[in-house]
Design a protein that fits this description.
By secondary structure, the chain is an alpha+beta fold. The protein is built from three helices and 14 strands.
């Protein structure tokens, strides 16, 4: 039974001290609020569910999968792209080695595919992907360094990622191919808007 710490004879209420009292223990209200708010996020994380709030993909929940063919990945970008993305706020705080959050992006090309980068965007095996044209400035007007135009055959151990969902996405149009070794998880949409 929970009672007020300052008035033990009144059950099931919170005292003026801001503590719940359990026989022999006092629990601050802030801890209760933290567990109530943070608990669902921890459960999602433990269950392999990721929350996407970035504009690069539809908002929603994404579930980890062991399916190696899943075309959505979570990764910590390599330098110098990692630092640029963190400094400019393309990545929030998180659990990557640099202290910023991982990126979630669709894989658009893998070993054997031919990627062409041009002023029209990224084409894979001759198919132009919508919304993949490079920008010379980001949405805040800061200069961007696009990946060089050209045709690239994807070598084993690498993938290209790009969002055709958002024309401002920070992806392979700026940092090129990614080594598959930096892929942390493969994901599938679970519940998206």
């Amino acid at each position: 039974m929970y009672t007020k710490a300052s008035e033990p004879d009144i059950p099931d209420t919170v005292g003026r001290t801001g503590y719940w009292s359990v026989p022999g223990k006092r629990i601050p209200r802030t801890w209760i609020a933290a567990v109530a708010f943070g608990g669902p996020f921890l459960v999602f994380w433990w269950a392999g569910i990721r929350i996407n709030c970035s504009p690069s993909l539809p908002l929603g929940l994404y579930k980890e999968t062991t399916d190696g063919r899943a075309l959505l990945i979570e990764f910590c970008p390599e330098e110098p792209s990692a630092r640029l993305a963190a400094i400019r706020g393309y990545r929030s705080n998180g659990n990557c080695p640099d202290g910023a959050g991982p990126l979630m992006k669709p894989v658009v090309a893998s070993a054997g595919d031919v990627v062409e980068v041009s002023d029209r965007g990224i084409a894979v095996n001759g198919l132009l992907l919508p919304n993949t044209a490079q920008k010379t400035k980001d949405s805040q007007g800061r200069p961007m360094e696009p990946w060089p135009y050209g045709e690239y055959r994807v070598t084993p151990g690498f993938v290209w990622v790009a969002s055709s969902y958002n024309p401002w996405s920070f992806d392979s149009r700026y940092f090129g191919p990614l080594p598959v070794g930096i892929i942390r998880r493969r994901l599938k949409p679970f519940l998206t808007l």
